[in-house]
From TrEMBL, chains A, B:
This is CMP/dCMP-type deaminase domain-containing protein. The keyword Metal-binding applies. InterPro entries: APOBEC/CMP_deaminase_Zn-bd, CMP_dCMP_dom, Cytidine_deaminase-like. The keyword Zinc applies. It comes from the Bacteria. Residues 21-126 form the CMP/dCMP-type deaminase domain. One of its GO terms (molecular function) is hydrolase activity. Keywords: Metal-binding, Zinc. Pfam families: dCMP_cyt_deam_1. SUPFAM superfamilies: Cytidine deaminase-like (SSF53927).
Amino acid sequence: MHINAYADKYIIEHILFMKEKPHSFWIQKAIALAKQGQTPFGALLVNTKDEFITAYNTTKLNGPTAHAEMNVIRQMHLLDYTETKTLRLYTSVEPCPMCMSAIVWAGIGSVIYGASIDDAAKYGKQIHVNSSEIVSKSWLSIQIIHHIERSLCLELFE
Amino acid sequence: MHINAYADKYIIEHILFMKEKPHSFWIQKAIALAKQGQTPFGALLVNTKDEFITAYNTTKLNGPTAHAEMNVIRQMHLLDYTETKTLRLYTSVEPCPMCMSAIVWAGIGSVIYGASIDDAAKYGKQIHVNSSEIVSKSWLSIQIIHHIERSLCLELFE
């Protein structure tokens, strides 16, 4: 099949644009945030223009509600968006039911995580209600993508 | 059955002490807070000396995580306690899974509420994971007492 030069260029640029920032790019950013905060937990909220806000776990400083995901959701007014469902939340570890319920209340459309709650439970206490269960008991449909850079995220616990 | 004067007095004082601030006293305070915030949701965190901190829902002002229970837990450092399990959280409506998970992370020992999530679901969207289920999936034993002044709490939705 022949594709002319213009079409070639268009297709390549489109692919490059689509592939420019894959999920692993953002999860690696979440990992860097986790390390910055000296915890296993980093999170980003990203809009359709790939503008983003960041947070890490600050429970030692700010108390038990200051998980990375909660901290980033509390800043979401700083991000430019018209519909919350267009936002993606990236996090090094699957949101606990506190954070996942906050994601539901916030109406965020996609969640992408690295290690799972079951993974994290090998290193500390967890509430064993996974993110998809919270969504299934809500009024929303939220896309959940799991195990992106899982092994790198697991290394954060060690 | 004969009870002597001293025993009578002791029993009565004990009852009076126990009854001085029954659960309904605190739930009525939660109801007053809810009305103050012009939402159905008010909460208090109380220590063993009956010192307490208060909050109501401020989601309109502070975003989706600002439920009454979250707002009160974020202030818990202001309260005097040695063990978090001695604290009681009173709330006009059963904590949603975000708030109940926060209560677990905070290690609060008792939760007392008025209306249930099922009650509240008649008036708006809810995540249908009840407070006892969150506790059962955690590492903690938390006392949950429900339906205190339920009808007064339900009136807050009307």
